[in-house]
Amino acid sequence: MPSTCCATGGLVWRETLQLLLPALLGVLVGVPSVRTLDENLIKGVLGVTLIAYALFALLKPALPPLHSTVWAYPVGFWRAVWVGRSIHPARRSSSVNPALAPQPRDQFRSTLQVIFLASSATVISAHALAGSYTAEVMQLVLVASPALAAGILLGAVLDRRLNQDRFRVIVLLLILATGVLLLV
After folding, report:
1. Distances from the Cα of 79 to the Cαs of 75, 84, 143, 159, in angstroms?
2. For 132, what's the count of Cα atoms within 13 Å in the CB-facing half-sphere?
3. For residue 129, which of 149, 160, 161, 170 sits 20 to 30 Å off, Cα-Cα?
4. Rounded to whole angstroms, how far apart are CA atoms 64 and 57?
């Protein structure tokens, strides 16, 4: 059972910070190296990681319970270093970390929202400081914005109609599909 330390609504700050702090550090390490590593290598490592995680979570192998949340630090850092390198912040896989431990849907969503907001702001700021935003990138942002808005609206509609188990399976299938798309 997750700690209720500093709980606000569905958000449990202790667990959120354990995921967020190493993620922010990883973004700060990953973004500057985007110009030095091959994009295909980055996409390959991220794709394999997402596929492995999704299959693992969908197959639900029996594991001993975790009695410590120490795992959150290296996992959050690893994810952020590789994902923070992405030129496009939407490629991030922030849903991987919170999904590792089962949580009620509202807590899961609250955790994701805090991580998305803070890591997105960090990735965007780091890329801006690195000079990654060109006129072409800003044009692509404008072109993609309507699809992003449609996805948000669709997600809100589907959220009201899905139970927690179905929600989890859909998230895992989307993670799996994202991993496959990164490899092709």
Report:
1. 6, 8, 27, 26
2. 20
3. 149
4. 14
Cα 154 to Cα 13, 98, 157, 164, distances in angstroms: 28, 22, 5, 17
**99-124 in b/e burial notation, b at 16+ Cβ within 10 A?**
bbbebeeebbbbbbebbeebbeebbe
Q: Are 87 and 34 in contact (CB under 8 A)?
A: yes
> What mean pLDDT do residues 113-126 have?
83
Q: Each residue of 134-184: pLDDT tens digit?
A: 999 899 989 999 998 998 888 788 878 888 788 788 888 998 999 999 999
Q: Which residues contact 26 (CB under 8 A, 6 or more apart)?
A: 76, 77, 78, 79, 80, 81, 83, 84
Sequence-distant (6+) residues with CB within 8 A of 103 are 2, 111
Under 8 Å between Cβ of 20 and 119: yes
pLDDT value at residue 9: 58
Higher pLDDT, 127 or 103: 127
Distance CA 21, CA 81 (A): 12
